[in-house]
Amino acid sequence: xxxxxxxxxxxxxxxxxxxxxxxxxxxxxxxxxxxxxxxxxxxxxxxxxxxxxxxxxxxxxxxxxxxxxxxxxxxxxxxxxxxxxxxxxxxxxxxxxxxxxxxxxxxxxxxxxxxxxxxxxxxxxxxxxxxxxxxxxxxxxxxxxxxxxxxxxxxxxxxxxxxxxxxxxxxxxxxxxxxxxxxxxxxxxxxxxxxxxxxxxxxxxxxxxxxxxxxxxxxxxxxxxxxxxxxxxxxxxxxxxxxxxxxxxxxxxxxxxxxxxxxxxxxxxxxxxxxxxxxxxxxxxxxxxxxxxxxxxxxxxxxxxxxxxxxxxxxxxxxx
Length: 320
Description:
alpha+beta, Heat Shock Protein 90, 5-stranded mixed β-sheet, two-stranded antiparallel sheet
């Protein structure tokens, strides 16, 4: 190579140092390793006999071992960097899905009731309805207004919870029985339209420190789902009990039920496809996935059992 022994030693030292201070790829490292061995052989050729041979082999083996270990560490770091990038990409995808879901809710679940309010108001003004007809229209306007308000509250609650990966319960005790009774009362007009009876089975008063808003959201979505997929004249039963520090909430209906493949994806917002109800009630497939998220953040579990044409049962267990 046209180098003196001193120059060869300096070149060797400089090259080894670059190996240990640079994040070289495996391919580049292997090339440099070959070059180092070539230098060692030529450097040792200037020494006498057996000493030069042993020194050449020993130095080459040592460098191979050290550089091989360094390349192995670099490879591990590259794999870790790749995993970090994949994780970041998954988080970005999840954030984008969340944004899309929120836009869908704003566009449909909130816009639709507001449009209905405007339509009923216009009808009331055009017809100048009086008596029973006027009261009926005002009742529908009120119902849609309450539905819109609940949708806004649910959206804000969900958006707030999405910012926190875990849930810290610091609430004052609330009465779960009362929460369920309030939600049933709010949905009585919908139940009356389909002649559906809702029964609440409660043996004793259950107080819990789980958040009232979260519990109301869970109860409302379970009841809404049961009403949507129950036939006229159907029956919905709510059972609540507490045992060994666990609250058990069960919502059962005798509605249309689900196929196994529907059950498998019912809590997955990106794969769950909404189906129209028994009276063509529309939905967008977000209620149950959001319910699942709240149950998990409260440290609970939720499961579903369903059979076509026989009904569906949701069972939730929450720590108390």
